[in-house]
Specification:
Layout: H1 34-37, H2 45-90, H3 92-99, H4 104-117, H5 122-133, H6 135-151, H7 158-194, H8 196-202, H9 214-234, H10 237-241, H11 250-253, H12 282-306, H13 313-320, H14 324-333, H15 338-370, H16 375-392, H17 402-420, H18 432-460, H19 467-487, H20 493-519, H21 551-566, H22 581-586
Protein name: Protein unc-93 homolog B1
Keywords: Adaptive immunity, Antiviral defense, Cytoplasmic vesicle, Endoplasmic reticulum, Endosome, Glycoprotein, Immunity, Innate immunity, Lysosome, Membrane, Phosphoprotein, Transmembrane, Transmembrane helix
Transmembrane segments: 60-81, 111-130, 137-155, 161-183, 216-243, 285-311, 343-363, 375-398, 405-425, 469-489, 495-514
Length: 594
């Protein structure tokens, strides 16, 4: 009886007519197995690798743009809402009609106290929070707290505004420290993805050359701060399109103002207590606050959906595994590093100059002279000047790194000296162009200051184990400076300018002294980062390059390599392998010998 043909044709078998099968095998020949299960014939490994790393680089650029846009929207919403809120609450008629005897001035003073005083304690918890949540999730949490502050303005009461202001004050330093850390990490990752062939030759455990990521860091910081400084312009949109229609002109609001500029005392001494011609409807206020809330929610979505992780999962574990006590102590141990000690005056001045632009220059010189209705345009000039100068910071690719900082300091020095001897007349519009030029030039100096400092810190401290500590210290000193400005708000303008001038000269001299020490080859003393101490719980990482391996595991791995290199001995040795995670959890070192 004739055998039945197989249900499925065998690969390479000869058909009934003896012809070639569909795979192209000749009669009596079997197709090689590689043709069936091997690689795609047109596969080009080098081209696919190049495309993969190009996608990774585009992903890094997407992360930088998303973080920059999220920071711009967050800070713009916060400044715009706070500015509109303080102007409305300042008006006596608005307070009496809308809120009666609720005590809005007292609530506003406690709210400002919460925003300005709470960051003083940020040095105690910021590194712990960043290591616990991770850089990206710390950014998302802080942006969410800013959105919470916006949402409480739907129902303005003591028990909503003051607690949200305290929470906002707690989130200020973690937000900007994690932002600075994030941008620095993105520049390092972009370098790795751009020079992946060199990384393959050097090995995965080999660190890239010192300062190799500096050009990318400068570009990314310029992008970030060009977006960030636009937040001051975005914050003026509620003023321009809503609140300006309800304001009195300068002849009413500045009627009792006698002196401006360098002759003024406090903030707008003699300013009229009523600034609103008509009160805005509650429905219109709710619409404006809803738009601001939607923008804050959009910033949260940008950070959540478009920002990738700053570290690999194993790197996150390594950063946490140095011990929470060590994480808490390390920011204080950086006092021994002479580079940070020399940069502290610049950190303090960085906080001084931003607050002076928003209060001293904008209010003491601008509003006092040309009226409250032109405050928005003055801050827009500052914002556009700072944003354009952040892009000009790319010239640092061809100039020494000290040039941006010294240029910004020199520009602010000239402006401060000019403002020290200038007292514009109240209710005089003839010199308004001088104020706009001064605001724009002050923004240029601020941009050089911020971009130069952040780039310098990312170059000096490029180890990923130290960056969150360094940016925490930087923004904490900025918060301390802002707190000092808050305490000295009632000082005469000449005293404020004198403090600003002395701090600026001390900051520039201290920075140049630091650069001189580095050129002489003086080695900084940095605190030691402890080795990660891992606790094995269940299934862990089984890659070849295991960043979680301990000293004992590394020694066993070395012994295995030596045994393999020695070759077979006279007696067959037991198989040398790394114990599996289950055996590690039980405390064993591998297969037991019986």
């Amino acid at each position: 009886m004739e055998a039945e043909p197989p249900l499925y044709p065998v690969a390479g078998a000869v058909g009934p007519q003896g012809d070639e099968d569909r795979l192209g095998a000749a009669d009596g020949c079997e197709a090689p197995l590689d043709e069936l299960v091997g690689a795609y014939p047109n596969y080009n490994e080098e081209e696919e690798e190049r495309r993969y790393y190009r996608r990774q680089r585009l992903g890094v650029l997407k992360n930088v743009l998303a973080a920059s846009a999220g920071g711009m929207l967050t800070y713009g919403v916060y400044l715009g809402l706070l500015q509109m809120q303080l102007i409305l609450h300042y008006d006596e008629t608005y307070r009496e009609v809308k809120y009666g005897n609720m005590g809005l001035p007292d609530i506003d003073s406690k709210m400002l106290m919460g925003i300005n005083v709470t960051p003083i304690a940020a040095l105690l918890y910021t590194p712990v929070l960043i290591r616990f949540f991770g850089t990206k999730w710390m950014m998302f949490l802080a942006v969410g707290i800013y959105a919470l502050f916006v949402s409480t303005n739907y129902w303005e009461r003591y028990y909503t505004l003051v607690p949200s202001a305290v929470a906002l004050g707690m989130a200020i330093v973690p937000l900007w420290a994690s932002m600075g850390n994030y941008i620095t990490r993105m520049s390092q990752k972009y370098y790795e993805y751009s020079h992946y062939k060199e990384q393959d030759e050097q090995g995965p455990q080999q660190r890239p050359p010192r300062g190799s990521h500096a050009p990318y860091l400068l570009v990314f910081q310029a992008i970030f701060y060009s977006f960030f400084h636009l937040s001051f312009a975005c914050a003026q949109l509620p003023m321009v399109y809503f609140l300006n229609y309800y304001l009195y002109d300068l002849n009413h609001t500045l009627y009792n103002v006698q002196s401006c500029g360098t002759n003024s005392h406090g903030i707008l001494n003699g300013f009229n207590k009523t600034v609103l011609r008509t009160l805005p409807r509650s429905r219109n206020l709710i619409v404006v606050e809803s738009v601001l809330m939607a923008v804050a929610f959009l910033a949260m979505l940008l950070v959540l959906g478009l920002c990738g992780a700053a570290y690999r999962p194993t790197e996150e574990i390594d950063l946490r595994s140095v011990g929470w006590g060590n994480i808490f102590q390390l920011p204080f141990k950086y006092v021994r590093d002479f580079r940070l000690r020399h940069l502290v005056p610049f950190f303090i001045y960085s906080g001084f100059e931003v607050l002076f632009a928003c209060t001293g220059l904008a209010l003491g010189y601008g509003v006092c002279s040309i009226g409250l209705e032109r405050l928005a345009y003055l801050l827009v000039a500052y914002s556009l000047g700072a944003s354009a100068a952040s892009v000009l910071g790319l010239l640092g690719l061809w100039l020494p790194r000290s040039v941006p900082l010294v240029t910004g300091a020199g520009l602010h020095l000239l402006l401060t000296l000019g403002l020290f001897f200038w007292a514009p007349a109240p209710r005089a519009l003839k010199h308004s162009w001088v104020l706009y030029v001064a605001a724009a030039l002050w923004g240029v100096g601020s941009a050089f200051n911020k971009t130069g400092l952040s780039t310098l810190l990312g170059i000096l401290y490029e180890d990923k184990e130290r960056q969150d500590f360094i940016f925490t210290i930087y923004h904490w000193w900025q918060a301390v400076a802002i707190f000092m400005v808050y305490l000295g708000a009632s000082l005469p303008m000449k005293a404020k300018l004198a403090v600003l001038l002395v701090t600026l000269v001390a900051a520039a001299a201290s920075y140049l002294w630091m650069e001189r020490k580095l050129r002489r080859g003086m080695a900084p003393r940095q605190p030691r980062i402890p080795r990660p101490q891992h606790k094995v719980r269940g299934y862990r990482y089984l890659e070849e390059e295991n960043s979680d391996e301990s000293d004992a595991e590394g020694a066993r791995g070395g012994d295995c390599a030596e045994e393999e290199a020695a070759g077979p001995g006279p007696e067959p040795a037991a198989p040398c392998r790394r114990p599996c995670p289950y055996e590690q959890a039980l405390g064993g070192d591998g297969p037991e010998e019986h």
